[in-house]
């Protein structure tokens, strides 16, 4: 009998752990494996599984050397190849997983160059939800022209999951609309989860990924190098992002972006996000609504 895919993804994530911790993680009941979002390791503390209602201890104490072993396994025993992302505090792992890291920052000329003496790690259990954007993607066009779109929800509401599937849809061709060339600026490595140049998540056949690069720097790079029709970014957070996106829009390139907000009204209450509406770059917003039944998507026109 084939395993539940959600359980299988949990067990694939557990396979990244050192053997003693892996055995403890696999003892979690099947129902909890289905809903687990992360495995959290803190040196000297019990390993936990993060479930929707909180952290559950897994009855095994994490030793500091096991964090180092986890890092070796996640990098396929090639930390040097992953040095750029280790210093940013994360690792992208084959299979579409992401490991967050904490430890002692190694500072040089005011810049963090590495992490040593690892103290904590988080194995995020990446789960694709292919199809969540299938009905929505065609609605982002008006008379065959893609409309710049914001995806809105509070933290943890599913913005990145929806962004990934919309990128896939736009890249493959949404409904009657043909494929579009999409450049994805994956600053934190959470959307495509790149490992040695290959996306571990399905972001479509006509998508070019610029990984681990700040959005404000990455947008001009792909404009010069990749001739995109649409640029996608996750989490607008600083004014420099707005300037870069305004430049892209001025070049006739479409934009798809996520932002922390529960509604358009909330966007208007924050100076940075209010500017998103005032500059008129974005035309549509998708509000992600999450309740006990799951997630729903509400599309609305933004004021011009």
Summarize the structure.
This protein is 29% helix and 33% strand. By secondary structure, the chain is α/β, with parallel strands linked by helices.
Structure description:
- The chain has 10 helices and 17 strands.
- It is of the alpha/beta class.
- The protein has a 7-stranded mixed beta sheet with strand order 13-10-14-15-9-16-17, sandwiched between helices. Strands 3-2-1-6-5-4 form a 6-stranded antiparallel beta sheet.
- Strand 14, helix 8 and strand 15 form a beta-alpha-beta unit.
- Helix 7 packs parallel to helix 8.
- The longest helix is centred in the middle third of the chain and has 14 residues.
- The termini are far apart.
- The relative contact order is 0.11.
- The mean pLDDT is 92.
The major beta sheet can be summarized as:
7 strands, mixed
Name the helicity range.
Answer: 25-40%
N-to-C series of helices and strands: HHHEEEHHEEEEEEHEEEEHEHEHHEE
N-to-C span: 54 Å
Overall strand count: 17
Radius of gyration over C-alpha positions, nearest whole angstrom: 20 Å
- Model regions low in confidence, pLDDT < 50 over at least 5 residues: none
Q: Report the β-strand fraction as a percent range.
A: 25-35%
Q: In terms of structural class, how would the helical and strand content be classed?
A: alpha/beta
Query: Quick one: overall form?
Result: globular
Please list the strands of the largest sheet in the order they lie side by side.
13-10-14-15-9-16-17
Q: What is the number of helices?
A: 10
Mean pLDDT: 92
């Amino acid at each position: 009998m084939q395993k539940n895919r959600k359980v299988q993804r949990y067990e694939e994530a557990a396979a990244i752990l050192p053997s003693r911790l892996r055995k403890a993680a696999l003892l979690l009941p099947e129902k909890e494996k289905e809903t687990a979002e992360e495995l959290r390791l803190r040196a000297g503390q019990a390993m936990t599984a993060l479930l929707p209602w909180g952290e559950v201890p897994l009855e095994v104490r994490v030793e500091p050397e096991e964090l180092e072993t986890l890092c070796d396994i996640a990098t396929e025993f090639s930390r040097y190849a992953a040095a750029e992302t280790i210093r940013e505090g994360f690792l992208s792992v084959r299979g579409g997983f992401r490991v967050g890291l904490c430890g002692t920052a190694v500072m040089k000329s005011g810049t963090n160059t590495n992490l040593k003496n690892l103290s904590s790690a988080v194995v995020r259990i990446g789960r694709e939800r292919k199809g969540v954007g299938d009905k929505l993607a065609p609605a982002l066009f008006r008379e065959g022209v893609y409309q710049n779109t914001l995806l809105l929800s509070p933290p943890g509401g599913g913005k990145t999951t929806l962004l990934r599937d919309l990128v896939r849809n736009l890249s493959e061709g949404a409904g009657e609309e043909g494929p579009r060339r999409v450049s994805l600026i994956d600053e934190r490595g959470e959307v495509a989860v790149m490992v040695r140049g290959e996306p571990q998540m399905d972001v479509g056949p006509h998508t070019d990924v610029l990984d681990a690069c700040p959005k404000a720097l990455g947008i001009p790079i792909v404009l010069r190098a990749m001739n995109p029709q649409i640029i996608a970014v996750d989490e607008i957070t600083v004014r420099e992002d707005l300037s870069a996106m305004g430049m892209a829009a001025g070049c006739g390139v479409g934009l798809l972006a996520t932002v922390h907000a529960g509604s358009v009204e909330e966007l208007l209450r924050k100076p940075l996000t209010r500017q998103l509406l005032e500059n008129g770059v974005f035309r549509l917003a998708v509000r992600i609504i999450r309740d006990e039944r799951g997630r729903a998507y509400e599309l609305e026109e933004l004021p011009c």
